Amino acid sequence: MIRPYKAREIPGRLLKKSQTSARQGTNQRKSAVYTPVSRFAAPHFEPICNAVLCRMRVLQQPARRGTRLLARMIFAVLMACADIAMAAGEDGPPPTLQEVVASAYARLPQRQTLDAQAGEADALTRRSDSLIADSPSLDTGYRTDQVGSQDGYREWEAGMSLPLWKPGQRRAEQELARRAASVVEQQASVLMLAVAGEVRERIWDAERMHNNVELAKKEWDTAVSLERNVQRRVELGELAKMDLLLARDATLSKRAAYLRAQTDLENARRRYVSYTGLSRLPPRQGETRSALTAVPEAHPQLAEAGAGVNQARAQVVATRRAGAGAPVLFVGATGERGDSDSDFDNRLGLSLSLPIGVTAHKRTAISAAERARAEAQAEYDDRHRRLVLALEEAQQALESAQAQLGVAQEQNALAQENLRLAQIAFDRGETDLVGLLRVQGLAFAAERQEKELSIMRQQAVARYNQALGVLP
Fold first, then answer.
1. Torsion (CA) 252, 257, 258, 262 in degrees, nearest 10
2. Fewer Cβ atoms within 10 A, N terminus or C terminus of the chain?
């Protein structure tokens, strides 16, 4: 069982860096100005609310409507959770699994891509809300007969061309913008699930390394105790000096194994700190197996693929509505005189340009949109099959780990009883040291197998929940 790690257990250089970052982050947060909420919220909600307000203040950017506002709010909440987890420090309670996931997500570089995609979806929304279908253009013209007859003929023209929406085209573009925003939201959920899976793996990797250290320390202590016993009996003349050399060799071997286990544990902790930014692990409580037995439609990866299919379908409709181009309304004025003795005749006019759609030209864009829709649907079907297979494998691994754990528990009980009897026989002189060491090795292996399978079963539960798309 993992004990909550103290911050001092982290290597000195890495700990100093993480503590300096935490103090700097705390000083920056203290310098921000935000309104306390203690009068409006319960005391245990005050740190969260204040941290959220502080983060929204630090963003220093005007939140736009739609997906950008939602993305900024989610980011502020996640960063607030990460701040609280970092501020807990060595003396506070260890971070929860949810806070660890939030801290890792806040440090993820891929969030920049999500912000850019949210901006793209927001741009589509603003475009579909526009009164015209495209950017207007300014048209000007001037004609003269100075090169020709030189009678003083002059003509000028100035106006603006306004692309117009076709019937149903604007509604189709608005639907496309909504589908694009939905894809961004689902991609954020997929990214959060991926972070949760990585955090789960790193935590259980550290748990396994910690278990190896505990077992290696126990085996080393046992070897030291046995060496002292053998040395005492050698001094009494009950055992040969060769037995003492054999006992010392076993002690050195166990010490080397303990040092290797310590190194593996420190490396696992460094990987955890590098990914999450936290120096402490959450308390080991284990996850509860989800009651779901099939991949839900709300699975983040499946929902993202479904949102992609809906966006592709909306793109097909928008492409069909767009056709060969947008109608253009020209609004302008013209002035004309026939010769230099005449006055200008000024007029105001309107003109409408209607594109004539030719099937050969329209079909190219529509076919490309149809191909993208088919690829999105194929991706959805393939992803669903892969998720179902991953869930079946996770369920099989969980059932296998549970069955193996039961067998390992029985084997360990037998091995420990056999070791107890072998120790009694050795103390009475009924067996030699080689026989005792062999039985000790079998007992240690049985105990290690039971502990590892216990961890594997807990990790299998976490992987089962991960396969179902369940966040901590």
1. 140
2. N
For residue 372, what are the β-bridge partners? none
Rounded CA-CA distance 457/405 in Å is: 8
The pTM of this model reads 0.72
Phi, psi (rounded to 5 degrees) for 185: -65, -40
CA-based nearest residue to 309, from 297, 320, 321 = 297
Per-domain boundaries in the chain: 7-128+170-313+361-467, 137-166+326-358
- pLDDT, tens digit (0-9, with 9 covering 90-100), for 333-355: 998 887 777 888 888 989 888 88
Tokens 């067998």 belong to residue:
407
CATH numeric code, 7-128+170-313+361-467 = 1.20.1600.10
The label of the residue with tokens 């660890």 reads 100
Token look-up 């296998």 returns: 400
Alpha helix (H) residue ranges in 236-299: 241-276
Angle made by CA atoms 67, 73, 77, in degrees to the nearest 5: 145
Q: Give the span between the Cα atoms of 345 and 334, in whole angstroms.
A: 8
pLDDT digits (tens, 9 = 90+) for 408-435: 999 999 999 999 999 999 999 888 999 9
